[in-house]
Amino acid sequence: MRALHLRSIAPVLGLLLTVPALAQVEARLKVNNDRLQGTHTGGSLLLFSPDPVQRGSSLSHWDTSATPNLLMEPFATGDLPFLGLDITPGQMQDVFWGNGTLTVNIFDADPPGVGFTDPRPFPGAPGNPAATLGEARQNLFNAVLGAWANTLDSTVDVDVIVTWQDLFCAEGAGATLAAAGTTFIVPLEGGGLPGPTFFHAALAESLVGSDVTGPVADGGGDIVVFMNSAIDDQCLGAGTGWYYGLDGKAPASAFDSAGTVLHELGHGFGFSNFTNEDTGAQSGGLPGIFDLWTFDNTSGLFWDQMSDAERAQSARNVAQVTWEGPFANDAAKNTLTPGVPELVIGAPAKIAGTYNIAQAAFGGPIPAGGLTGQVACLKDGVADATNFNGCTPANNPGELAGKIALIDRGSCGFTTKVANAQNAGAIGAIVVNNAGNGVITMGGNDPTITIPSAMVGRTDGNRIRQSACGDAAAFFGGDRFQVSAQWKTAKASGEGQAVMLTKESGYFWFFSPEGIEVTVRVLNACNLDGFNNYWVFAAGMTDVEVKLTVVDTQTGQSKAYSNPLGTPFQPVLDTKAFATCP
Amino acid sequence: MSSRTRRTPVNPAQWVAMALVLTAAALPAAAVQPPPDQEQATRTVVVGKATLNWHVAQKASAPQRAELAAAFKKATEARFTGGEPYVTPKAEPSTSLGGQRMLPLPVELIHTMFVDADGQEFCSDSTAVTKAAATTSVGKDQ
Q: Is residue A220 within 8 angstroms of chain B, CB to CB?
C-alpha cells in the first residue's frame, strides 16, 4: 500500500506544483510595550513549555520569561517577596478556590526525635527564634501553611501530611530538596464543567463541602509533603543547609525553605495538571481542572480537547501554551512588566505574523521605533549542512548591505556571527536556534558590535529562511528530521535546494528551481500496528549521483542513501529508518 | 499565525459567574458525609485569621505512607542515577469512607524541588527530569 502511494506522488506533483521563487521577506524587530513580559502575543499568561525538555520542564509553571519572577515559575530565585503569592491567588480562583480562610490540620508523620521534633539546638534565624531544629521546622510550616490558609477559602479542614526523610543528596551531584502534591485526585461533575473532571483533593472538598478523602488515620489526607532532612546535615558540602529565616534572604550556600515549601504547596492546592507530559496520558483517563484552562495557541485547542499525542506535542510548543483563566490574567496586569521584544514578519503573507525572540546581551538596543528591513541570508561559503552559520566572513556582502541578516546557530560564538553580519553591512541580525523552537539570550562581549540582534526558534527560523534564502536542508516531521541532498555529475557538484510541500514531504532541485530532481517523505509510523519507527521514502527523476542525508535532530542519528552517477534514481522505501519514537 | 478557537459550548467566562453545583462523580447519594477526623490536635496555632492544628499521624496508615515514601524516593533518585523514569503501577479507583471515587496521584507527578551539581534549583515532576538530565547543549557557542 505504501509503495503504491509513493509511486503516485510524482505525477500528482506535476499537476499541483508551482515552484516558489525566493520572496522578499520584510521584517521588523521591535519592543512591544503593550505586551507584558511572560505573556503570549495574544495577551494571555504563558505556561512553561520548553523544547527540548530541560530542567523545570512542566506546564504546571508560569513561563520563565515572566518579569518580575513569580512564585510558581520553575526556578527558585532569591528575590521572591516572602509569602508573596503574587498572581497565584488569581490562578487558584480560576480553578474555583474561593478567597478567604481555611483550617489546616498538620500531621507529623515521623517518629519522635525526627523532623518536627528534632532536638538539636538551633541558633535562630530572622523571623524564626526557635531553640531547636524541630521547632524551627514547625515555625516554617506555621508560616507557609498560614499564608495559604489566609488566602484560600473552605469550610472543610485541609489535612496536610508532612514527613522529613533522608532523600537523595550527594555533594557534586545534587539533591532532592522538597516536594508536595495532592494525595488523591477526585472526579467532580456539574457546575458547567464539560464532563467529569479531576480536582485536587483539598479543592474538591471545598467545592462539595465534605471531607472526601477521609481521616488520615484511615489512609486519607489531602496534601503530602516530603522534606529532605539530610540537607541540614550539610550533605551538599560544608556550610550548606536549609535556611529557616522567614525573610526570604537565604545566603548563597543555603536553600530558602520558606520559598521552596510555599511553591510546592501551590502545586498541592491547585497549581498542577495530572498529565504525564512526556506521553500526554491523563491520570485516570479524565482531564484535570488545570487542563480546562490550558490552551494551545497553535492548534486552537484546550488540553482537555486533545489526544494524548497532541498533549505531548503541546507540552513542548514553545511560547504557545497559555493559561486562559480570567482571574490570573487580570492579576497579571498589575504585576508583570511591560515591554517584550518581537519579530514581526510583514511579507510574504504565508509567513506573516509575530514571532517569539530573545534579544542578545551584546550589541545595540532595538530602536524605540523598531528596526525594519528585508531579511537576507548570510552566506559564508562553508559547505556544511546549513551553510549559513556565519562563522567566517560573508561572501555575499552585496546582498546583506542595509538588510537584516539571517544566520544559523552553532559552530562558533554568537558575537562572531553578528560581527560578520555587521561587517557585511547588515543593520541587524537574527540567529536561528538549532536546538528546538525555544530561544535563549545570546551571550558574549564585543564592544565593536553596534547592530541589534536576536534569536528566533528553529521552527520559526526555518520558515523564514525557506522564504528568504531557499534552503540546502529541509526539515520534515515538523522540524525534527533534517534532510539534505548533495549531487554530482562528471563535471560539477553541489547542494540540492529543498522546498517543502507538506510537513512530511518535500523535494530538491539541483540545476534550476524549475526542475524537480528528488522527492522525499519522512513518515511517522510510531503508532502504526507492527511498527514503532520513522520511515524514509524517496523517488527521483535523475541519473546524477545523489547522496541524501537524513538526520534525526532529536537524537543525532543519521542515515545516508546514495545513488551512483549514470544510474536512474533508485527508489528508497526504508521502513526501518529510525527506531527513535516518539 | 495562530488560531484561537474558544471552547464550545461552555464559555469559560461564564463558568466564573455560574454558581458551582458540583458533585463527586458516581457518588452514592446517602454517603456524602464521612465521619470527621478522629485524631486529636496536640497543639493549635492561629496565623492571621486561620487556624493550624498540629497532629501526630495515626499508626494505622503508616505502612501506606511508607510505601508512598519508598516510591517517591525511587522516582526522584532517577534524576541523579540516570535510571528509567519511575512509573506508578496502574491504580484502581479507591473509595473513601464517604463513598466517593478517587485516585491516588501517581508518584511521578508529585512536583519536587531539585538542586543540580551546578547549584541550579528547579521544580519539576519526575516524568521529564531524567530526560532533561541527559539533554546536552547543541552547538559551540556561549
A: yes
Summarised one tens digit per residue, pLDDT across range A23-66 is 689 999 999 999 999 999 889 999 999 887 888 888 999 999 99
CA distance A235 to A166: 10
Q: What pairs with residue A429 in β-bridges?
A: A405, A453
CA A291 to chain centre: 17
Q: What's the rounded Cα separation, in Å, for the pair A442 and A475?
A: 24
How many residue pairs bridge chain A and chain B with CB atoms within 8 Å of each other?
363
Residue A17 has pLDDT above 50, yes or no: no
CA distance A65 to A321: 13
Instruction: For residue A292, list chain B residues with Cβ-Cβ distance below 8 A.
Output: 12
Complex ipTM over 0.90: no
Q: Which of residues 105-124 of B touch A (CB under 8 A)?
A: 105-106, 108-117, 120-124
Beta bridge partners of A356: A342
Distance CA A285, CA A187 (A): 11
pTM tops 0.80: no
pLDDT tens digits, one per residue of A374-397: 999 898 765 454 457 888 899 888
3-state helix, strand, coil in chain B (%, to 5): 30, 20, 50
Q: Which residue of B has its CA nearest to A148?
A: B50
